[in-house]
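EI: anyone free to look at a 136-residue chain?
SC: sure, send it
EI:
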Amino acid sequence: MAEESQASVANGFMIAPAESTIMLRWLVEYKSYSSRNTIIGLNSVLKMWCLWRRYPKEIDVVKGSMVRPNWKEKGMLFYGHFDWSESYNVHLNQRFVKPRLDSFEVSLSFDGIDCLDTSFGEILRFIFYERFEVCA
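SC: here you go
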């Protein structure tokens, strides 16, 4: 798994053998999960971080490249450019984008992403068009 921050382990990209002990421990923790709990991270990224700290030999956590930029580094995606090509996983979340899009009157339509001159726009163009160029 990947370290997402100093207090969480990202679960967007995991590699584990069948019947992995750490994954079974994590699954057992979900017995106390409630959909009424609005803080989803308590049962996902924070719970896995705690399990990693308690059973450090059962999990290898990769730092720096697996989740970059992480959720705390949103400025790297939405307010400029970051070379995300070496990242295995990029934390994208629309809730971080809205203020930026509103201030520049850009929408998340295909026309809007064509000219969004940020790493976020670059990633969207790569996903939708398999190209990076702005306003092509």
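EI: DSSP finds six helices and two strands in the chain.
SC: 👍
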